Amino acid sequence: MRDAVEIPVLRQGSVLIATLRPAVPDVDLVRLRTALVEEVVRMRSRGVIVDVTAIDVMDSFASRTLQELAQMIRLRGAETVIVGIQPDVAFAMVQLGLRMEDVATALDLEEGMAYLNRKFQTSG
Amino acid sequence: MLQTDGDRPDPLPHSRREAAHFAEPTLLLRELVAHLRQNRTQLREEWARRITEAKLLTAMSDEEVFAEATAVYDNYVEALETGTFEALQAYARNLSERIIPRRVETHEVVGIVLLLRDVLARSLFAKYQADFSKLDRILDAYEPAANRIANTVAVGFVQERERVIRQQQEAIRELSTPVLQVRERLLILPIIGLIDPQRARQLTEQLLRGIRSNRAKVVVIDITGVAAMDATVANHLVQTVEASRLLGATVIVTGLSPEIAQTIVKIGVDLGKMSTVGDLQGGIEQAERLLGYKVVPIEQRP
Question: What is the pTM of this model?
Fold first, then answer.
């Protein structure tokens, strides 16, 4: 199953980390979403981090896919954080009305990890 | 090319220009340039004297005026000789760069070039007064080139001035939106004065960069100094808050004046997702709570 995914998924403790490459094709994003939704329970993970540092253009498809990913992961009982959105990308996104509401965001991988760890502590 | 004086008692400008096209302008120009070279010292002094008389370039000392006059004179003659204006253009730009900070005005620069034009023309009159038809042809060759030189210098000066003005505007704009770190991971952005869409955009960009470079988690935007806000700017503020959130930072807006509060509610901008606190102090306190700081007076410490 993992072989089909172009985007590597790493496991760090109870967190799955996916790092997007620049100009990632839509089809790979969808595959990533499918794979993460499956893996998250199989790996008994409690959190998912998607690192978009390398992404310099976030279109509506990508942002919707990530938003759906977060909602699906929540239904599977885990938390999602999108990390590393670049300033220019963030500015362009809000101008296009891509707000990714209800999706947790953090500055970078480290911050994303810290966010998830706080979440894990409060939820016990 | 023989023209009798009787035919042209009052030469019209257009016939002159025509003549310049068909006459032997290069030959005449060469003669002209030789004349200007020969009389360099005297004409230069005459020009410098006229500049002082006309009370131009008062910001500069006589020596400086004379030095610049020499340089302009040589460049002027060279432009006449070669018909290329690049060197003169470069010199005009360089000169402008030096004299603009000394508050030399446009009319002074245009004035000195026109004076030089006049001084040289007079010297040509003096030299060729015996031969009117030759003087006429010499002027045909001289005038277009002299006009173009005057134009080049004036345009160069104005362009340089505009460049300086643009640069200063940029500097003022940058100064007007400081992003300041008050504590680890806490930024404040005090906004003072009018916000137009361009400034709002620049403000957002600077804030987002600031969040990234300072690794900020909380930002307090203080708009106490903003007198009025329209729908465009209010929406921009909302966008700033949302973009900051995408970078993982929380924004607190403080100092909304009663007028702005009324405007925002009346125009129906959705500020529901924006957290607001009355004043800057309250905003910073709230931000410290979010970051897990607690400020305690020294004497109460255990």
Answer: 0.60
